[in-house]
Amino acid sequence: MRPSVQQHARSGATLLLFATVACLAGCQHESEPEHKTDKSDKTVLDGMQLSAARRVGLESAVDALQRGDLQRLKMLRQWALGRAQVVLFSDQDLGSLDLGISCLDGTLAPSDRRAAVARLGSGQLREPARDLCLPDQE
Q1: What is the pLDDT of residues 66-85, one digit of tens each?
Q2: Banded model confidence at residue 47, pLDDT cuts 50, 70, 90
Q3: Are 48 and 82 in contact (CB under 8 A)?
């Protein structure tokens, strides 16, 4: 049995409908911005991301100083110094981090700790580093 003219018209209309939907879907897809992730590009943090990175870094350092976690302090120091395009810790906070590491690993003699703490200056890590290095001076 041969298809009738009506059946040909219906199948042609169906094909036209599918072609139109496919074209519209393709056009819509092309107009959406592409999100490419190139591993060779350096990621630049915006203000919110930078603030969050600093806050998390400081909170992690305070926690590690309070718990006396030497490995975590060393990891944080490495992370802070390895992120050249992003300054996570101020010079004063980095000094406090180093002091905490020195007190925990024993490279700073107990007799030298008071003078080292006095040289710290300001910073958000000063107090936790002082409490770690001079526990009797609270």
Answers
A1: 999 999 999 999 988 886 45
A2: confident
A3: no
45 is written with which tokens?
């943090």
Phi, psi angles (nearest 5°) of residue 32:
-75, 140
What pLDDT does 31 receive? Answer: 44
Tokens of 103: 């007190």
Query: Side chain identity at 34, as an amino acid letter?
Result: E
Tell me which amino acid residue 94 is.
L
The DSSP secondary structure of 68-103, one letter per residue, reads T-HHHHHHHHHHHHH-TTS--S-HHHHHHHHHHHHH
Report which residue type is found at 109.
A
Let me know if 76 is exposed, middle or buried by CB neighbors in 10 A (0-12, 13-18, 19+): buried
SS3 56: helix
- Reduced DSSP (H G I as helix, E B as strand, rest coil) percent helix, strand, coil of the chain, to 5: 70, 0, 30
- Indicate whether 55 pLDDT > 70: yes
Q: How far is the C-alpha of 128 from the C-alpha of 110, rounded, in Å?
A: 17
| 133 — pLDDT class (breaks 50, 70, 90) | very high
